[in-house]
Amino acid sequence: MKKLLVASSFIVASLALGSNPVGVWQGKLNINMPKGAMAHGDPAEMDNMVKKSSFKLEFKADHTYNVNAKTPREAFTTSGTWVQNGNKITVTPKIKNGKPFTAKPIIYQISLDGKSIIRDIQPGVSIVFSKG
Question: How many domains does the chain have?
Fold first, then answer.
């Protein structure tokens, strides 16, 4: 019984530490909203946005990151710093399109198995990253 308790405590502690996000991640826009809930654009426009958007996110071991994003509306790059607390990764943008930039920190969530990272943009809209 003591071995089981120790083993389960170790597993819970390991999960609480979170998976290591270092590496390159490819993202896809995910829109999952009920019909009529979209504030802007029609469903065909949203479908086009999903198909033509691409995101590349790189977390580096020195706790810096880079994002390259392309959507039908804009293309941009950002970079800055990141910290991890459990399964939450907080990024602080410092540069956008090569110029100093200040923005609120952005929170990403890494799955417990370390296979995906999600950035919630608004209810029903997220970017889902997988290791690329």
Answer: 1
Q: How far apart are CA 66 and CA 28, in angstroms?
A: 16
Residue 45 pLDDT class (50, 70, 90 cuts): confident
Mark out the alpha helices in the chain (DSSP H runs).
Answer: 2-17, 43-52
User: 96 with 77: CB under 8 angstroms?
Assistant: yes
Rg of the chain taking only CA atoms, in angstroms = 17
103 domain-assigned: yes
Per-residue pLDDT band for 5 (boundaries 50, 70, 90) equals: very low
Say what the pTM is: 0.79
Within a domain: 11: no
Whether residue 110 contacts residue 18, with contact meaning beta carbons closer than 8 Å, is answered with yes
DSSP track, 77-103:
EEEEEEEEETTEEEEEEEEETTEE---
Q: What is the DSSP letter of 73?
A: S
> Which residue range(s) make up the domain with 115?
24-131
